[in-house]
Amino acid sequence: MPAKPLKTPPGREPAFLSSRFAVVLAGLALGLAALAVYANSFSGPFVFDDIPSIVENPILRHLWPIQDILVTPHGIGQTVTGRPVLTLSLALNYALGGESVGGYHTVNLAIHILAGLLLLGLVRRTLLQPLWQGRFDRMALPLALTVALLWTVHPLQTESVTYMVQRAESLMGLWYLLTLYAFLRGATSPAAGTGWFTLATVACLLGMGTKEVMVTAPLLVLLYDRTFVAGSFRDAWRSRGRWYLTLAATWIVLALLVAGTGGRGGSAGFGSGLSSGTYLLTQCRAVTLYLRLSLWPHPLAVDYGIEQVDSLAAVLPQALFLVLLAIGTLVALWRRPVLGFLGCWFFVILAPSSSVVPVATQTIAEHRMYLPLAAVITFVVLGIYAWIGPRSLAVFLLIALGLSAMTVQRNTVYRSAVSLWGDAAIKRPDNARAHVALGTLLAAQNRLPEAAGELETAVRLAPNNIEALNNLANVLAMTGRFPDAISAYERVIKLTPREANPHYNLGNVLASLGRLNEALDQYQAAVRLTPGDGDMQYRLALTLAQLGRFNEAIGPCEQAVRLRPDFPEARQNLEAIRKLAAQSNQ
User: Fold this and answer.
1) What is the mean pLDDT of residues 293-313?
2) How high is the pLDDT of residue 307?
């Protein structure tokens, strides 16, 4: 069992460092550093999941009735589904500035700065606890600022700050840190304890409505109390048990939200199609990667694809390393509680997304390290300080400058969707999704040969990727590579027999080659699958007319006019087809 902290008065900082002016100055320095490294991020466009979650999300277009925001329907803005606090923050952004990206970036950076300030306050007050017997009295503020600064400017954080919809992670992190900070203030300020504990509960509740990782907060608060304040679980519970019950009650809200999401539309949870065992093995690779990127943040990628590991042998070294690290954490909980707490901070916060509950759409994601990174940095800072003392501050300043430069450089990659996905395709060449996204964007810019190359790579990596095949077929058709386009469309049709568009697109290619009977078969299939599409009805009518089957062409042409009253070409050709039909009937 860990020894209880000595019953001595809290450590005292030097008068200047303990003054409000010094703390405010430190906070100002932190905020200015964050603004400096993210100043070049404000024009970055919507990318990746920003599109369905923000740009195409009708829920964000109004703030009332509020129940639309609190209960997001399945299939709408998947990243925001079941996360009403996140959804509300994005809806407020839209209400103030529509789709102007600057507003979203501004709020994201503000959230990140506030989280950094809370981390500064939490570390500073933790270092002044009696547990340390005055060891950090003179250095609490400088060391806390060092931890918060390195965490704030670290390039691993760019995904949670510059990638707009990943506000989910940073906003949850803000509530998480506020919960811990407010609970610490309540535990060490008897006169104002109720107010601080109430604030901690409200922050915990808001976090539950932001992202599911918040589920670990009540447990980590209890562990923090036992480690740094009470000295034992028994004393922590005896002194503040009712407030732990209050924090735990927020799990009810989270449970209701999770139950209403249906496994986030099938993308996460035990029904996502990815087994827990495979996901756990994949996380051995993911978590060791996160640790390496914490210490050396290169190369970074916005998307690591859906990498899966099916064999323990493939990740045996990583698995053994993590098992030893987890065992060391458990042992340290009793023998070296501070080290044990840092290990738990890392593992416990990662556990919901990086253990056995599959997230099928992204098995590896940098934003999951937003909060766990704080434990790694704290361990490194305190370890180096214990080794070389106050001289370490100069080392940390150099490290902060290096990390800041890397963050500025990383933000340049977010300046366009093409540069972002191009970077991901280079960093993760086996990621089919990156090549699909890049190829599609290049095609939209009419850079067709480059687009075809990227999409062909995607199809080679994922032969049954429907989006890659369909987009490749479209690009091949536009570049005149008709035999290859026909082959690609036929593969899409085989994989998605109930989709009308591949039939329609294949019909267009066949018609352009004069293979009208084959084109007719495709148009008829398209119309059977989607009879309410005016364009498909019209192409069917034209093909029938070209084959001299004027009487049969009248019906679909009339349908096209009815479905699209603003289609003058169809209206004109309808009259021509009727005349030709009448002539052929004479």
Assistant:
1) 95
2) 87
The per-residue pLDDT for 15 is 60
Residue 45: name the closest of 335, 416, 328, 294 by CA. 416
Dist CA 459 CA 200 (whole Å): 50
- Tokens standing for residue 34: 């964050």
Closest CA to 334 of 211, 191, 232, 466: 232
Provide the domain limits for residue 521: 498-586
Using the CB atoms, write b or e for 198-209: b if 16+ within 10 Å: ebbbebbbbbbb
CATH of the domain at 560: 1.25.40.10
Instruction: Note the pLDDT of residue 137.
Output: 87
Please tell me whether residues 350 and 202 are part of one structural domain.
yes
Give burial (CB, 10 Å; 0-12/13-18/19+) of 310. Answer: exposed
DSSP 115: H
Give the separation between CA 257 and CA 303, rounded to whole angstroms: 27
What does the buried/exposed string (b/e) look like for 154-188 if buried means 16 or more CB atoms within 10 Å of the residue's CB? bbbbbbbbbbbbbbbbbbbbbbbbbbbbbbbbbbb
DSSP codes joined into one string, 30-87: HHHHHHHHHGGGTTPPP-TTHIIIIIT-GGGG---STHHHHSPPTTSSGGGTT-HHHH
Residue 528 CB contacts under 8 Å (≥ 6 apart), including other chains = none
153 and 277 housed in the same domain? yes
Last residue of a domain, one of 443, 470, 497: 497
Q: Are residues 204 and 69 in the same domain?
A: yes
Same domain, 357 and 464: no
Average pLDDT along the chain: 93
Q: Which structure tokens are listed for 70?
A: 């609190």
Answer positive or negative: Cα dihedral of 47, 304, 437, 425.
positive
Domain count, the chain: 3
- 353 near 364, Cβ under 8 Å? no
Closest by Cα among 125, 531, 105, 156 to 374: 156
* Nearest Cα residue to 333 out of 343, 322, 323: 343
Question: Per residue in 398-440, pLDDT tens?
Answer: 999 999 999 999 999 999 999 999 999 999 999 999 999 999 9
Residues 273 and 260 in one domain: yes
pTM: 0.91
Q: How is residue 226 annotated by DSSP?
A: I
Q: Are 29 and 152 in contact (CB under 8 A)?
A: no
User: pLDDT, tens digit, for every residue of 90-130?
Assistant: 999 999 999 999 999 999 999 999 999 999 999 999 999 99
